[in-house]
């Protein structure tokens, strides 16, 4: 399982996303980096798991095997020696008892000496055997429990790591889910626009702009009015888009007629409505050299589309209840309509869930627009009445804004706004949009401020209506900004249009507090080598868990080493093994409080407990190998894992030391059914004196048994 997870982690690490477009949004950057974060997380978990498995061998199995081979095996050898010496002694004793008393005295004395010698050997072997049995039985109490204790400590260290990783992962998960939701919203809005574009392209396959060609040329017929009527003259026309120059060469060969090439500068191009002329495929242009409009006829509908695309021609909106040209501009009636819609929404529907996202009935929307923009009595509609619901009002407002002859944020500034939203530098992004807002015409800027202020009010009630600035950007991005060309590339920039509106909402106060200091041009973007202001979200990085090597030093040595450390946790001398870093946690206060005269211990580990576990692991490792400079197999001593909670419960607390609430005088309180057993903290011992009485070597191995002065020690010691 661990190997499979490691392979999966490697796959995630090497996986690369492919994105369409030249720039990624902040949310897409987060998504692109997410697999690397997942891979590092899985790798860290499996690395700790492998260390835990290694601990099972180093801390549990090997020490038990060493105890069996060295202690129990040595006892078996003692037993064999005892049996051999016993057999030899009793056989000699039997022979000695059968000796005749008639033998010489010297022979009898020699036989007695041999028996005494064998008896001494037998007694010595029996004592050594009995002593060895007693030693095995006594040492078994700690030599077997200590490896299990160390392994449990390692196991809980691994479990504690998973808890820490879970805590670190939760905020990252929430941020990534938000990025995923924003990206899904951008995808939905872009898909709707692409579906509409695909439908239009199926109806007219050649409506897209001429790819990569700034110049278009071909035959056009020009309407020329004469005193006796109207005639259509054929011209060969060449249009240069950058200079907006149109060269027209007449092709009709009439004898005696003066034929010359016309060079005109284009001002505007508008498609001619079908019901206004009896010819097909017509469009009107205005030039600087001629007054009035010039009507041109293309060779086909597809050909007219190409000419209009090259000339940035304006197409009428199909199926629009607003039919007159002046009603598609930002005029007084339009401002009145927008203000009435905003007032109605903020009065009776600002907390409606999914406001502006929920679409109203198309029939009701057209009915409202036709009534409001009626030429006889424009604006004479009461939106506060019960005839119009919130969905109809919001859909009508979006329809009006989307069907303006030019979007609120204008075609002229569209490319600059999109480029600003694509910037990696957040400060430049905001500054550029701030400057471009004040480049809008006065009416457009006034309308934009009115709408953004309304959207800010909507987002202030996001807890009720569930509409965040990101959601409003998805809805109003294509409404307030539109590309002049209907191309797939323009559709892929919709997500950046959404980001522009989102920035306007989030920074409304700053942007509309006044124009920037220099409105002549937006700020110059920093070079690409500059550090990003926006970095992808990551799982919170913790200090590396370095596994220290525990040496079998005394308590005083360990304390001295601890005092010799530098503030960052490393040793000032020979700093090869830094102290492991962990998230600090305040331990639960002891019910009995701290002893008088001892400083408070809350928030810092018990040094005796750390040293005991360290010496325990050192003894286990010293059984068959020297202490290495490698990690101590995952055994850490941190405040987060209080080793004192793993110590065995003593038979009874000392007199006068209280345990848990309700326990005193060594009598535990009966536990009710269902309560979990609580491991009691051992009572705090008084501080060790500066000078300690020398003790036998075997007791030096158990510093927890040496707690008092020489006078307090029992006579057995």
Automatic annotation (TrEMBL):
GO terms for cellular component: actin cytoskeleton; cytoplasm; dendritic spine; terminal bouton. Pfam families: BAR_3, PH, RhoGAP. PROSITE patterns: PH_DOMAIN (PS50003), RHOGAP (PS50238). GO terms for biological process: actin cytoskeleton organization; negative regulation of proteasomal protein catabolic process; nervous system development; regulation of endocytosis; regulation of synaptic transmission, glutamatergic; signal transduction; synaptic vesicle endocytosis. SMART domains: PH, RhoGAP. Residues 516-717 are annotated as: Disordered. InterPro entries: AH/BAR_dom_sf, BAR_dom, GRAF_fam, PH-like_dom_sf, PH_domain, PH_GRAF, Rho_GTPase_activation_prot, RhoGAP_dom. Residues 328-512 form the Rho-GAP domain. It is found in: Cell projection, Dendrite; Cell projection, Dendritic spine; Cytoplasm; Presynapse. Its main location: other. Residues 213-316 form the PH domain. Residues 683-697 have a biased composition (Pro residues). It comes from the Eukaryota. Keywords: Cell projection, Cytoplasm, Endocytosis, GTPase activation, Neurogenesis, Synapse. Residues 592-613, 660-678 have a biased composition (Basic and acidic residues). GO terms for molecular function: GTPase activator activity. Interacts with HOMER1. Interacts with AMPA receptor complexes. Interacts with SH3GL2 (endophilin-A1). Interacts (via C-terminus) with NR1D1. This is Oligophrenin-1. It comes from Cepphus grylle (Black guillemot). The lineage of its organism: Eukaryota, Metazoa, Chordata, Craniata, Vertebrata. The gene is Ophn1.
């Amino acid at each position: 399982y661990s190997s499979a997870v490691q392979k999966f982690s490697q796959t995630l690490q090497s996986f690369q996303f492919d994105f369409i477009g030249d720039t990624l949004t902040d949310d897409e950057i987060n998504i692109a980096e997410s697999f690397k974060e997942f891979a590092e997380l899985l790798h860290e978990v499996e690395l700790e798991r492998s260390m835990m498995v290694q601990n099972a061998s180093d801390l549990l199995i090997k020490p038990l095997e060493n105890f069996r081979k060295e202690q129990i095996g040595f006892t078996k050898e003692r037993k064999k020696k005892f049996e051999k010496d016993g057999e030899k002694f009793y056989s000699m004793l039997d022979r000695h008892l059968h000796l005749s008393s008639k033998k010489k005295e010297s022979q009898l004395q020699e036989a007695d000496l041999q028996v005494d010698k064998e008896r001494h050997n037998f007694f010595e072997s029996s004592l050594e055997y009995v002593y060895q049995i007693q030693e095995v039985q006594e040492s078994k109490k700690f030599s077997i429990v200590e490896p299990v204790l160390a392994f449990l400590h390692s196991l809980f260290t691994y479990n504690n790591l998973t808890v820490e990783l879970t805590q670190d992962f939760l905020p990252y998960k929430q941020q990534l889910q938000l990025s995923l939701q924003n990206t899904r919203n951008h995808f939905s809005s872009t898909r709707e626009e692409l579906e509409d574009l695909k439908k239009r392209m199926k109806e007219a396959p050649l409506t897209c702009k001429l790819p990569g060609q700034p110049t278009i040329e071909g035959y056009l017929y020009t309407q020329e009015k004469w005193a006796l009527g109207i005639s259509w003259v054929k011209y060969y026309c060449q249009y240069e888009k950058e200079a907006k120059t149109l060269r027209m060469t007449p092709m009709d060969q009439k004898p005696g007629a003066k034929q010359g090439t016309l060079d005109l500068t284009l001002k505007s191009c508008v498609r001619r409505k079908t019901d206004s002329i009896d010819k097909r495929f017509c469009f009107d242009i205005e030039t600087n050299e001629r007054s009035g409009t010039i009507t041109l006829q293309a060779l086909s509908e597809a050909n007219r589309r190409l000419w209009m695309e090259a000339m940035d021609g304006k197409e009428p909106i199909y199926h629009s209840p607003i039919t007159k040209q002046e009603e598609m501009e930002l005029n007084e009636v339009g401002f009145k309509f927008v203000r009435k819609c905003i007032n109605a929404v903020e009065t009776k529907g600002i907390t409606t869930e999914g406001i502006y996202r929920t679409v109203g009935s198309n029939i009701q929307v057209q009915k409202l627009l036709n009534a409001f923009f009626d030429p006889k009595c424009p604006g004479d509609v009461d939106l506060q009445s019960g005839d119009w619901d919130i969905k109809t009002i919001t859909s009508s407002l979006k329809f009006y804004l989307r069907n303006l002859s030019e979007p609120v944020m204008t075609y002229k500034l569209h490319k600059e706004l999109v480029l600003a939203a694509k910037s990696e530098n957040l400060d430049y992004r905001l500054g550029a949009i701030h400057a471009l807002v004040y480049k809008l015409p006065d009416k457009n800027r006034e309308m934009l401020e009115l709408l953004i202020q309304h959207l800010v009010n909507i987002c202030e009630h996001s807890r009720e209506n569930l509409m965040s600035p990101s959601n409003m950007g998805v809805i109003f991005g294509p409404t307030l900004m539109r590309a002049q060309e209907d191309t797939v590339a323009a559709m892929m920039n919709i997500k950046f249009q959404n980001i522009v509106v989102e920035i306007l909402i989030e920074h409304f106060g700053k942007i509309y507090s006044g124009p920037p200091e220099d409105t002549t041009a937006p700020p110059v973007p920093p070079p690409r080598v500059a550090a990003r202001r926006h970095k992808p979200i990551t799982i919170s990085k913790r200090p590396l868990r370095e596994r220290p090597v525990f040496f079998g030093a005394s308590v005083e040595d360990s304390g001295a080493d601890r005092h010799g450390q530098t503030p960052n946790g490393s040793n000032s001398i020979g700093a090869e093994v830094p102290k492991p870093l962990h998230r600090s946690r305040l331990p639960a206060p002891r019910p009995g409080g701290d002893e008088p005269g001892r400083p408070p211990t809350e928030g810092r580990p018990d040094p005796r407990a750390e040293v005991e576990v360290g010496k325990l692991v050192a003894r286990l490792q010293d059984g068959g190998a020297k202490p290495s400079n490698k990690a101590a197999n995952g055994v850490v001593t941190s405040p987060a894992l209080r080793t004192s909670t793993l110590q065995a419960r003593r038979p009874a607390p000392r007199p006068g030391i209280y345990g848990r609430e309700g326990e005193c005088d060594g009598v535990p309180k009966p536990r009710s059914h269902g309560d979990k057993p609580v491991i009691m903290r051992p009572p705090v011992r008084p501080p060790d004196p500066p000078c300690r009485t020398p003790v036998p070597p075997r007791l030096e191995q158990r510093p927890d048994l040496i707690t008092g002065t020489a006078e307090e020690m029992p006579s057995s010691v």
